[in-house]
Design goal:
By secondary structure, the chain is mainly α. The protein has one domain. Helices cover 42% and strands 0% of the residues. It has 3 helices and no strands. The radius of gyration is 21 Å and the shape is elongated.
């Protein structure tokens, strides 16, 4: 018997499990969730981790006029749905 290890995004896990359950020769499906192992525990640590990952990526390089950009964002917030 052979064991296959497959990594998928969290939102795709259930879909893949349903597909595998329908295959007659699949004997066992075990799910191991690794997302919580590397997550910082406090909100401060999570924010620091996110900021560290964003460093040096020039996330806002396409914004020509930051003030106008903020106005547009705020207009979107004020819309009635």
């Amino acid at each position: 018997m052979t064991t296959l290890i497959i990594q998928v995004e969290d939102e795709d896990t259930e879909s893949l499990k349903k597909i595998l359950h329908d295959i007659p020769y699949v004997k066992n499906i075990a799910v191991e969730n690794n997302t919580n192992l590397n997550e910082p525990s406090t909100q401060y640590a999570r924010i620091n981790s996110i900021l560290d990952k964003a460093k040096g990526k020039n996330l806002f390089k396409d914004i020509k006029d930051p003030v106008e950009w903020q106005r547009e964002i705020r207009k979107e917030w004020d819309r009635d749905f």
